[in-house]
Amino acid sequence: MQELHDAPLAPLTTLRLGGPATRLLTATTDDEVVAAVREADDSGTPLLLIGGGSNLVIGDKGFDGTALHLATRGFALDGTTLELAAGEVWTDAVARTVEAGLAGVECLAGIPGSAGATPVQNVGAYGQEVAGTITEVVAYDREARETVTLANADCAFSYRNSRFKAEPDRYVVLRVRFALEDADGLSGPIRYAETARALGVAPGDRVPLAAARDVVLKLRAGKGMVLDPEDHDTWSAGSFFTNPILTEEEFAAFRARVADRLGTAAEPPAYPAGEGRTKTSAAWLIDKAGFTKGYGTGPARISGKHTLALTNRGGATTEDLLALAREVVAGVHEAFGVTLVNEPVTVGVSLHP
């Protein structure tokens, strides 16, 4: 297991931000991961887990403790059953399932990060989320001090949430198992309207797997959501804010604010979110509050392709990024009475100081 001291963490994140870790370990096997976690727990050393670094905002002072980079590898396909090691590159894994003719995650193409992070965030996009295909998650339980296997029902999946996210200091994901579908080379039903329009089909139709993946990659690239080291518009953590989910009372008050600000004919995006709740669009809120694509003059700006992405234009600090994020949160709240919540995990800093 590789060990470095006073090691920079910025290169391990898609934002390229954050100070150094006191100690950085790189684990390439499950046993090394478990050993490193146990050592940190036994000594009372703070521990930071890093996979693909696509969902991390690390403070400029860095991390005073042990950062553990999960670089495990493993792609095992048995019929329609897929098992991925936590450190597998997610985009590569999706490409291999499409090549194998199996449906279930093809619309999650292009999402940066590692396989082990997908159940934590219940990663989703373009009408699919991993909760729909994950059967089991193998994890090290730091509380029980043993490796456990959690069935899908035990993972408490919900919109961009899970048991692993709710108990961030308890579980370390080691492996993720999926049940995919053999639909004779066709995708799962296309559920997302934008994807269906781009493919020229009706929602619910199936298309060749490669066509679904290629369209999703094209849509993501158009929004700066496919990583490109040469394009600072992709130096982000993806969507920086989650789509707000509002109660009936909150949504009624929100609609009234929209009417006051934009006119009575204006209708905000609204999607059923279960139990009398409605999901609206964070990107719409940001744009209508006056924070348009490319907003900002400093080294941290809103993406020129998508209002949900906050980007490092080169030379930014984490505080630069957070200052922009706080400005957006305050502006949206003032305009519409809705408080945006950050999607990436913050380390050593907070969006709400």
UniProtKB/TrEMBL annotation:
Enzyme Commission code(s) on record: 1.3.1.98
Family recorded in the similarity comment: Belongs to the MurB family.
Name of protein: UDP-N-acetylenolpyruvoylglucosamine reductase
Domain spans labelled FAD-binding PCMH-type: 17-183
Pfam family, one: FAD_binding_4
CC per GO annotation: cytosol
Biological process, per Gene Ontology: cell division; cell wall organization; peptidoglycan biosynthetic process; regulation of cell shape
Catalytic activity reported: UDP-N-acetyl-alpha-D-muramate + NADP(+) = UDP-N-acetyl-3-O-(1-carboxyvinyl)-alpha-D-glucosamine + NADPH + H(+)
Main location: cytoplasm
Pathway(s) of this molecule: Cell wall biogenesis; peptidoglycan biosynthesis
Organism: Streptomyces tagetis
Gene3D superfamilies linked to this entry: 3.30.465.10, UDP-N-acetylenolpyruvoylglucosamine reductase, C-terminal domain, Uridine Diphospho-n-acetylenolpyruvylglucosamine Reductase, domain 2
Keyword list, A-Z: Cell cycle, Cell division, Cell shape, Cell wall biogenesis/degradation, Cytoplasm, FAD, Flavoprotein, NADP, Oxidoreductase, Peptidoglycan synthesis
List of catalytic residues: 160, 239 (proton donor), 343
Role, per record: Cell wall formation.
Gene Ontology MF terms in the entry: FAD binding; UDP-N-acetylmuramate dehydrogenase activity
Localisation per UniProt entry: Cytoplasm
Cofactor dependence: FAD
PANTHER family attached to this UniProt entry: UDP-N-ACETYLENOLPYRUVOYLGLUCOSAMINE REDUCTASE
